[in-house]
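[INFO] parsing input record for Transcriptional regulator SbtR-like C-terminal domain-containing protein
[DEBUG] input buffer:
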Amino acid sequence: MPAAVREEFVRLFTELLRRAQEAGAVRSDLDVADVLDLVIGAAAAQRRARQRGSGADLLAVTLAGLRVAERVSSSSKGKRVR
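[DEBUG] output buffer:
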């Protein structure tokens, strides 16, 4: 990939990640390098899983892990909190 294309991709991806984090849709403890590493690794794992006949959707599992999780807090008496 040409350097200029990669730089533009990373710039745009960084902005997308920042907006998603500000909206509370993506965990705030991740940076763009973390997310790119996870997506690239998950895509490679998905390709290998497909080759061995697995029906697991490893990319979806990884992407779900990027989202801010809702949890039940004991102090909120069963209410979901972020």
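[INFO] Residues 76-82 have pLDDT under 50 and may be disordered.
[INFO] shutting down worker
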